[in-house]
Amino acid sequence: MQQEIKNEDKVYYCSQCLSLAIIRDNGIDYCKHCGCAVINECSIEKWEELNKEKYPKKQILHSRGIFINNYKKNEYYTK
């Protein structure tokens, strides 16, 4: 069962590239994409705002399989 992220929940993200792909290895947290070890936390809404500011042309994929601006099917989402 997939757990939904609530707006009040905190997310951990890379301070350099804003990726949510954080890995913990031997007690050290780092970004899977860029390798940065500076990890921040905030609400999902705040992270989306930061992501839109840093990457204005990038679209964020939501859990229902749709993009913010236009619909695109997510082949991995089966519900």
Structural commentary:
- There is one protein chain.
- A two-stranded antiparallel ribbon has the order 1-4. Strands 2-3 form a two-stranded antiparallel ribbon.
- Helix content is 14%, strand content 23%.
- It has one domain.
- The chain has one helix and four strands.
- The chain has one helix spanning 44-54; strands spanning 10-14, 22-25, 28-31, 39-43.
- It is an alpha+beta fold.
Spatial shape:
globular
CA-based gyration radius: 14 Å
In the predicted model, the low-confidence regions spanning at least 5 consecutive residues are none
Integer tally of domains: 1
How do the strands line up in the largest sheet? 1-4
- Please outline the major beta sheet: 2 strands, antiparallel
> Please, what is the average pLDDT?
77
Which range best describes the helical content: under 10%, 10-25%, 25-40%, 40-55%, 55-70% or over 70%?
10-25%
Summarize it.
The protein is an alpha+beta fold and 79 residues long.
Q: What is the topological layout?
A:
Blueprint: E1 10-14, E2 22-25, E3 28-31, E4 39-43, H1 44-54
